[in-house]
Amino acid sequence: MTNRKLDEIRNLVLPVMRILDLISIEEEEKLKQIPLGYIRKNATRMHAVCRFKPGPKGYTKTIEDVKEVAIHPEAVNEKWIHYARFLMFHEYLHAIGNIRHDAVFRRLEDLWPDEVAKNAGKEFGRFLRNRAAKWLWTCPKCDKEHPRTRKSNGRYLCRKCKVTLIDSPVGQTHDL
Length: 176
Ligand SMILES: [Zn+2]
Ligand SMILES: [Zn+2]
Known about the structure:
alpha+beta
């Protein structure tokens, strides 16, 4: 299965990885063969994933072991496309054998030349939660709103004001 948007992102990310000297021509060719896909649309915590084929425990993973690189479908929309490129870069770093988010991984990740994209994760997460929210937990004192899928039922306090948060349903007027 091919997807034009995902192919476009890949065709931009791989040359950057070559310029950064993170991959060889051979590795670039192998990365091109990895199927691209989307994670489920209503995911709010996961933004992208590099899926490996099951293999023996403790065995070093290589590009050939990658089953799929998948990105959140919302990330390929115009507003988040810069973040989608960074997500694909991040997953390709996993694909070339950097399995854990250790110090080495973070140093490689930091080589991505788009500073805004590198810091977009928090905002994208907030956007996804906002989209999924059915309830707003609101502080009656400072008016800070926390969009959530469930009611708080008086169990949570505003971190700043130490006042119980109030539930209100997300209305049609609420700007997502
Ligand atoms: Zn990761
Ligand atoms: Zn408050």
